[in-house]
Design brief:
single chain; 286 residues; alpha/beta; 7-stranded mixed beta sheet; two-stranded antiparallel sheet; 9 strands; globular
Length: 286
């Protein structure tokens, strides 16, 4: 992909997420438990420790940056980075509410971080790398800003068909809205572009990282059927597309999603499957 194509693709991603920012901010507190479940394996894989300088890429609504800021403590610092300032409005608010003085927010492209070489002990990214037009170049940029021996850890979605939430969302959206590739502001393909086993490994290795490893993490929660467990993710996925679609269309899509989960009920619960993948790598020592 040439420079102009990368720039165009990046601007499309920026515009998309700018439109999603308020939906993510409004729902971020509601998905705190899910966020914590995703944070734990990523933080462990990155080997985060007190006193470290950490760059969090694609910070979005604030996780895992806020959790990592609490972990590295007063002697450490987190540089929370996102392509879209609109996505970090809620993160700034929550950081202030938690009294986190060791976190810096900045707007930047993961392909061109505003940092000197060897600035960080760790670079982490949760659900961001798959939106980059050139993941290997992003990994190379992470390598550049890492100290020798420093570590990266990326978390991405596994195959879409292996996470129940999105299986239901896709079926409902196609039933109500038609083929998704023809619907503006809904992209349920790009988030899973690094989901195939080995895709993440290849991107990190092509970026010049060593000791590259990839692992799968699976969850199988059973959630109360009467709980609004899917509504936050619904808003974050479809909110922008439905902003101008009219109340009737939004209601029809919600009803289709609710019916999809109703069909999965087992007693008073809905069994859910979640598949994410974590890739790690190390910057070679000089």
């Amino acid at each position: 992909m040439d420079t102009d194509a990368i720039r165009r693709e990046t601007e499309l991603v920026r515009a998309d997420w700018a439109g999603r920012g308020r939906h993510w901010d409004r729902r971020a507190d509601e998905i705190a438990e899910q966020a914590a479940r995703m944070n734990a394996p990523l933080i462990e894989a990155a080997d985060i420790a007190p006193g470290q300088q950490v760059c969090d890429i694609a910070t979005g609504a604030g996780e895992p940056a806020l959790s990592v800021a609490a972990l590295v403590g007063a002697e450490g610092r987190v540089f929370a980075t996102d392509l879209c300032p609109e996505m970090m409005l809620g993160a700034r608010r929550r950081a202030a509410a938690q009294g986190l003085g060791n976190i810096t927010f900045r707007t930047a492209d993961m392909l061109a971080l505003p940092d000197a070489e060897s600035a960080f002990d760790r670079v982490i990214c949760r659900f961001g790398l798959m939106f980059c037009p050139t993941p290997a170049r992003a990994a190379a940029e992470a390598r550049r800003v890492l100290k020798p021996g420093g570590r990266v850890a990326y978390l991405v979605w596994g195959p879409r068909e292996e996470t129940t939430m999105f299986v239901v969302f896709v079926a409902a959206a196609e039933a109500v809205l038609g083929p998704l590739h023809s619907v503006d502001d809904i992209d349920l393909a790009r988030p899973f572009s690094l989901g195939a086993p080995g895709a993440l490994t290849q991107a990190l290795a092509d970026g010049g990282l060593t000791e590259v490893e990839e692992s799968e993490v699976r969850f199988a929660p059973r959630v109360p059927a009467e709980a609004p467990f899917w509504q936050a993710q619904f808003d974050m996925t479809f909110g922008r597309a439905l902003d101008g679609a009219g109340e009737a269309r939004g209601r029809a899509l919600k009803e289709a999603v609710a019916a999809g989960f109703e069909r999965l009920k087992d007693g008073d619960e809905v069994p859910m499957d979640v598949h994410v993948r974590i890739g790690t790598g190390v910057k070679p020592a000089d």
